[in-house]
Here is the input.
Amino acid sequence: RRAGWNSDISWISCDDESTHGQLQEVFEAFNLQDTVLADIVPGKLRMFGAYYVVRSHCTAHNFHCDFDPKTFPALLTLITPLANYPETESFQINYMSHGPLLPSETDVDAALKRDGVQCRYEYKKGKAIVFGSGFLHSTEPGAAREGSEPHAYLSFTFGSSDEAWWP
Here is the structure.
């Protein structure tokens, strides 16, 4: 769990070679190399991490970037839900329309002061959102419907196999 966040969000990573191999196969089944990402990311796409993200509530926004774009310029995140959850009026993902953190911005607060519109992406099973390291986003405040299961997602961190893009 992430201390200081207004959520019970947890990231559960694979901790053995067998599970990592199974999730590598799932990652490869997305065929991301055959998408527009091949034109954006130099070299072959490589999975760096695989996680299950689980949450049941969020009481306030916590806008953040998954990775520092100055340190990890070509690192991407993919998130896809494991089910279609009944709660869709809230508890999705919000992001800022003005684009990623700028090199001159040292923190998220500076980016939030820039003109931009808060946007919303609604998760759907069988669809994934992919975004870069400077993508300013937050879980939308809300909760899983009472009596329903927590929301669970599969998330991959990936990027270029070209070591020139690694920190």
